[in-house]
Amino acid sequence: MSAIRLLVLGAVRMHGRAHGYQVRNDLEYWG
Fold it and tell me: Is the overall model pTM greater than 0.90, yes or no?
């Protein structure tokens, strides 16, 4: 469980560096 969680967090961090602002805008739009 923790291993998968680390992989997910790592993927989100890697992807977030390029699309962090877009994701934040999407969250605000949907939220």
Answer: no
